[in-house]
Amino acid sequence: MTANSSIKPPLWFWIVGVLALLWNLMGVSAYLMDAYMKDETRAAFSEAQKSIFENQPTWITGAYAIAVFFGAIACMALLLRKKWAKPLFWISLLAIIARTVYYFFMTNATDVFDMIQGTIVPILVLTIAGLLVILSEIGIDRKWLS
To answer: Which candidate among 56, 66, 84, 102 keeps its CA 20 to 30 Å from the CA of 112?
Structure first.
């Protein structure tokens, strides 16, 4: 172990790291539920909601997968105190930005879904991803990550 990696992070770092991992694992779960959604579940959607899901470009599905899987792996790296968490968080954030821009400006998702699902959750996801990038930068600056 090098001198730089012997600096122990505070308790809040571990709490935030575990909560972030759980948050990102919920994202992975949501992605898998969307990817393997049964026809009966989709039948409960309104026609406008079905249209958004069915006309979604492949690159948006890819961005969704990248966002959640890279975010979860980045959280694991953060808890392992690895500085390569930072580029993974950045990749996840960029994928989230791409997906959010698509839904806000290239679809009518904000009109089709309720306020929580259509606006608040996407902004919350984007905010948390940005804060995790900042946390990884703090961790590197304070030599908690090596």
So the answer is: 66
